Amino acid sequence: MSDLKLVDEKDLKILEMLLANARTPFTDIAREVGISDVAVAKRIKRLENLGIIKKYTILLNYSRLNYVASLTGIDVEPEHLYTITDELKKKGYIKYLALTTGDHSLIAFITARNSAEMSEIHKELLATRGIKRVCPAIIIDMIKY
User: Residue 59: what pLDDT?
Assistant: First the structure.
């Protein structure tokens, strides 16, 4: 495989299967892809080393835990962007954080135990030096994971 093409169709199939279920046994992947389980393990290790596979995790249904979740747009003064992202990465209530080119500098997926806690989180963010605006959208129901 050339350096120009980091992944092939077999790699893409492996990634698709792991996205559906990160606990899929290598033997099941090997059967589906048409290679040995040892080859699957080597490919997965390579994808990890390339930084394509970042980590393995679980996906929670926060509403079943009676948590409140929001997708929150965060507008940041440009000179504070990297300081703010470094701070926000450390916040346990922020599950995902993305730098965007859209309406907001950052988009955060935030969880809280209840509406009052979510409100406090948004107030805390807004009070942070360098954050100009916080635009929360409370998630009513996740349609697709």
Answer: 87
Q: Which residue has the tokens 């835990």?
A: 65
Q: Which residue has the tokens 């009513």?
A: 140
**Model-level pTM?**
0.81
Domains and CATH numbers, the chain: 9-49 (1.10.10.10), 62-138 (3.30.70.920)
Q: Contact 62/69 with Cβ under 8 angstroms?
A: yes
**Cα distance between residue 77 and residue 63, in whole Å:** 33
Encoded tokens for 83: 């300081």
Distance CA 142, CA 50 (A): 31
**Cβ neighbour number for residue 128 with a 10 Å cutoff:** 15
**Which residues fall within 8 angstroms of residue 38, CB to CB, at 6 or more apart?**
none
